[in-house]
Amino acid sequence: MSEKYISDWITKSYLEKLFFNPKSSLNKYQNIIDFKIEPACLEGSNFSSVLLRVTVKLCNNKSVSLIVKTIIREEVASDVLINQFNVHEKEIFVYAVILPEYAKIFNTNNPFTPFVYDIDHVNSAIIFEDLSKKGFVVADRVKCLDEQHCEKVLEKLAKLHAGSMILNYKNPDIFKNCSIGMVNRNVKLLHDYLNVCLKIARDEMKSWHNCQKFISKMQILEDSLVEKACCVFDFNTEKDTFTFLHGDLWTSNILFKYDDDKILNDAMLIDFQMSSFGSPVIDLIYFFFTSAKDHIIMDKLDKMLEFYHENLSKNLEEFQFSHIIPSLDKLKIEWTNKYFHAFISAFMFRPFMIYEGKADISTIMGTHDEALEFKKKLFSYKPTKNLLQKLLPIFEDNGIFKNV
After folding, report:
1. What is the dotted CATH code of the domain comprising 137-398?
2. Any idea where the domains of the chain sit in the sequence?
3. In whole angstroms, what is the distance from residue 263 CA to residue 209 CA?
4. Residues 115-174: pLDDT tens digits?
5. CA-based nearest residue to 48, from 11, 15, 18, 91
6. What is this structure's pTM?
7. Is there a contact between 330 and 240 (Cβ–Cβ < 8 Å)?
8. Segment (H or E) for 102
9. Hey, which residues does 55 pair with through a beta bridge?
10. Which of 55, 294, 304, 325 is most enclosed, with most CB atoms within 10 A?
11. Residues 6 or more apart whose Cβ sits within 8 Å of residue 328
């Protein structure tokens, strides 16, 4: 196992304290005989954290599997994510404070996140149930998600958003620690990343079919790119529907479960490090333009938005939401107002998410020679190039290059 995956604080003594804590649901198990630690996710699926699977061997040939999520502290880019985005403290707050309030609304364990056994503030770690033991798996990020999988995600996302609308009226202060979105004005590393991606994409477009007219527009867009991207996350209390946003809803942050006939029957959302509050369309746009198959992005988004709205309304009605339920037309207006996020998601995030090759966070976010060469590969990768060529005219029709 790579050194960066080893957490020397996970010892038998540590696990015994966890298992024998009278307040823990793990205290029903017997004495610990041994344990094994191994990586819990494939390389390229997680960029700012270490995910470990800890298999604990008990008496009577029984075992319990845990997922331990903690911090990568080695790379500059990871350090920025940890300190400037405050990703781990934010996620701990979400699991310790916000999501337990959801459980009260739904009167059960959260139907969209894994169960949390313990939160370790000393080691900045969260200990989850291992959903793989219940049959949950991560979908192939390279192949992206079909219509059936997208709808299952939207069902869960609608519950997350609906619950937050109810909570916001009961206790609006609960979300105050989640004010910083994924794209914001304070993180220069991200600004550099966006600008570098735009420049490399523009250079690669010189060889793309029927895209020459967009090259000059992309070049001029550099002056306003970061500000336009940040404006998406500016919350307008008069125009925007308030929801708690997952913030980083893409294929690798979703687990799916299938029945014995391999029919999809459930999904769980994981990784709330980039969560914030804002219009629900921010989550929707990011999800579709990073994770949905091409034909859904090109032809099915209206249908998908309607499906989401039906589920959002159903959840709010079920829990007797006493305020105005946002109409589908209102969501469409917010979609239009936040549509620049589609450009950012498609050009700046989807390329590395669906790329077959592997890279660490430093290579993805960096501007050193190796990082620049990697980004050139992203925009020459055929699946990425094919989709972006089709999206450029659509982006133009939707005002992305307006005033450019």
Report:
1. 3.90.1200
2. 3-129, 137-398
3. 39
4. 999 999 888 899 999 999 999 999 999 999 999 999 999 999 999 999 999 999 999 999
5. 91
6. 0.94
7. no
8. helix 99-106
9. 36, 65
10. 304
11. 305, 306, 309
